[in-house]
Automatic annotation (TrEMBL):
Domain UDP-glucose/GDP-mannose dehydrogenase C-terminal: 320-422
GO molecular function: oxidoreductase activity
NCBIfam families, alphabetized: NDP-sugDHase
Keywords of the record: NAD, Oxidoreductase
Catalyzed chemical reaction(s): UDP-alpha-D-glucose + 2 NAD(+) + H2O = UDP-alpha-D-glucuronate + 2 NADH + 3 H(+)
Pathway participation: Nucleotide-sugar biosynthesis; UDP-alpha-D-glucuronate biosynthesis; UDP-alpha-D-glucuronate from UDP-alpha-D-glucose: step 1/1
Keyword Cytoplasm set for record: no
Family that this chain belongs to: Belongs to the UDP-glucose/GDP-mannose dehydrogenase family.
Family annotation (InterPro entries): 6-PGluconate_DH-like_C_sf (IPR008927), NAD(P)-bd_dom_sf (IPR036291), UDP-Glc/GDP-Man (IPR017476), UDP-Glc/GDP-Man_DH_C (IPR014027), UDP-Glc/GDP-Man_DH_C_sf (IPR036220), UDP-Glc/GDP-Man_DH_dimer (IPR014026), UDP-Glc/GDP-Man_DH_N (IPR001732), UDPglc_DH_bac (IPR028357)
EC nos: 1.1.1.22
Protein name per its UniProtKB record: UDP-glucose 6-dehydrogenase
Amino acid sequence: MKITVVGSGYVGLVTGACLAEVGNDVLCLDLDPRKIATLREGGIPIYEPGLEDMVRRNAAAARLRFTTSVEEAVEHGTIQFIAVGTPPGEDGSADLQYVVAAARNIGRYMDGYKLVVDKSTVPVGTADRVRAAIAEELTARGLKLHFDMVSNPEFLKEGAAIEDFMRPDRIVIGADSEQARDTMRQLYRPFQRNHERLIVMDVRSAELTKYAANAMLATRISFMNELANLAELLDADIEQVRQGIGADPRIGYHFLYPGVGYGGSCFPKDVSALRRTAAEHGMEMQLLGAVEQVNALQKQRLVNKVERHFGADLCGRHFALWGLAFKPNTDDMREAPSLDIIDGLLARGATVTAYDPVAIHEAKKLLGERIRYAANPMAALDGADALLIATEWKEFRSPDFEAIRAKLRQPLIFDGRNLYEPAAMRELGFDYEAIGRR
Ligand code: UDX
């Protein structure tokens, strides 16, 4: 099939590469000429395991091409994926200007049937706006061309995006016409494993499904964080509680890990946008308000623990921080809890040296010279009063504790990701504080 993907960011690139991988003829559009130049040279502008190889392989086979020409892009694909950014506006609602601009371009240049698929995360009702924008452009050209509109939200996790796309646990399709549904079924046939993954519904329900999923997961995390804080007060162990409740299949083990609060490009933005949508319809989503409040507090949790130990004035104190990215296997720093932790430490007069396996480059863009950066985990520890852990990178799981102890001024670790066993840490002579653990 001939497919155009509008927007060569994270979602667009993964979608384009994976659709090319199964044999489609894919053209990716981006208005940023530098991004397209990088992609044409075989580089990728983001860090995502497996993506670079996949892009190169499919580009070499000429199944995946890149352009800055809107006209060429609209002409190419019978299926037009819209995968542009929807950054949060000042009031927390999703900013739809790029989505609407993409729609207008389609209306401006299309000369036959198009199936327009929205992959960007957009508020309920956006498909109608996209449809209206395309229709307006067609009317301005004096044309009456048929097109269909589909909502096909993405559920990719950063760091596992290729796997999520190639082996999805579900593919949500919101479509209003039989032709659109058939085309989408055909398009996704190669990604069905041994049973049906396609869940077909109406457009508005598909749009809401995306927000519902992320809001539910964010709620679980805030709930576990609050429960972990309570466990500390009660002298209970959240790790044992987690296993005890996760064994109930109605609850399940996934997304039950307390920590330093959720971050990233999706949860904070989507929870806030969903609240906003509800408010626009005269409804206050009480629960989601609390989810956000709990998360904001949790991002301060590690700093509060440091404060309890050293007092509010941290002048002259120096801290090592392991992990900057909002989660492992990504260099993404958007809404990363590490930023709140760093802010909190610096505001109290401390200095920080941070290490992250891949996110240092991104962190430098945001933090510049406010902190120091180390080339490896051990180098971050020199002369530090304590080690703080903000991201659960694999390489932090089993470090050389003797070396850590030798480097720190005192054997003190504040672990925001519960990587180690408190009892074992005590035996190693560490003062170890985790989240919700005894
Ligand atoms: C999320 C959704 O999982 C994905 O389906 C959607 O398409 C986009 O948003 P992502 O933001 O990449 O994906 O990361 P995810 O792995 O879901 O983690 C989100 C945040 O929650 C991270 O900050 C992570 O540390 C935190 N988290 C996750 C917890 O604190 N505890 C958990 O148990 C799980």
